[in-house]
Amino acid sequence: MSGKKTIVHLLRHGEVHNPEGVLYGRLPGYGLSELGQEMALAAAERLAGRDVVHVAASPLQRAQETAEPIAASHRLDTATDEGLIEAGNSFEGMRVGVGDGALRNPRYWWRLRDPFTPSWGEPYIDIARRMMAAVEDARKSAEGSEAVLVSHQLPIWTVRRFAERRRLWHDPRRRECNLASLTSFVFDGGRIDRVEYSEPAAHLVLKSETARRAKGA
């Protein structure tokens, strides 16, 4: 590396308390479940020994709650960055599982006409640009050290694809961005040298998935 090494970690929030099973999107009032709080602690433990000098989060409750133990362990305040917010989605507040809820109703099918933009929500390119701006602000704030940005699955996956110069439209089932996972942009000066991925709460994600399958059985 020729410039200063700076790392910006993009952390997806932990599991959310959502007994209704709706797509909560940007709706207020959706905080972490008890397991989600454990996930946030697992991420904080992973980052405890790192040189973190800046922590920021999406304004949504689940992101703020995920950021709390990380900021506390480094004796920092959590900044709120609107650029890290969840993607806008016209199905917000509805049940949208595969073959479930709104997707079974023909009146909503027109919203699915264009998967490349996409037609049902915030354009991928807009997500990528606002997320990249948040990453760049964090890089500058933490130059030579590390920053943690708490966001959401689609925004994190979109900005990663943007940074890696891949097409932005994709199959949601193939996103590499589990709950409480870290997608880390390693900078050489102002240039992204590489992207790393890790799952500090993998054991808790497995526990969450097992419980969800048992509930649906």
If you had to describe this structure to a student in words, what would you say it looks like?
By secondary structure, the protein is an alpha/beta fold. It has one domain (5-88, 123-216): Phosphoglycerate mutase-like (Rossmann fold), CATH 3.40.50.1240. 33% of the residues lie in helices and 18% in strands. It is built from 5 helices and 6 strands. It has helices at 34-47, 61-73, 124-141, 153-163, 202-216; strands spanning 5-12, 52-57, 78-80, 146-151, 182-188, 191-198. Helix 1 (34-47) runs parallel beside helix 2 and helix 3 crosses helix 4.
Distance between the termini: 52 Å
Secondary-structure-based class equals alpha/beta
Based on the coordinates given, report the CATH architecture: 3-Layer(aba) Sandwich
Quaternary class: single chain
Helix content: 25-40%
Rounded mean pLDDT score:
94
The number of helical segments is 5
CATH class: Alpha Beta
For the report, how would you describe the main beta sheet?
6 strands, mixed
Order of helices and strands: EHEHEHEHEEH
Count of discrete structural domains:
1
β-strand number: 6
Radius of gyration: 17 Å
Write out the CATH superfamily name: Phosphoglycerate mutase-like
The neighbouring-strand order within the major sheet is 3-2-4-1-5-6
Indicate the low-confidence ranges by residue numbers: none
Q: Which topology does CATH recognise?
A: Rossmann fold
| Residues in β-strands, percent | 15-25%
Principal-axes geometry comes out as globular
Secondary-structure map:
Blueprint: E1 5-12, H1 34-47, E2 52-57, H2 61-73, E3 78-80, H3 124-141, E4 146-151, H4 153-163, E5 182-188, E6 191-198, H5 202-216
Helix pairs in contact: 1-2, 3-4
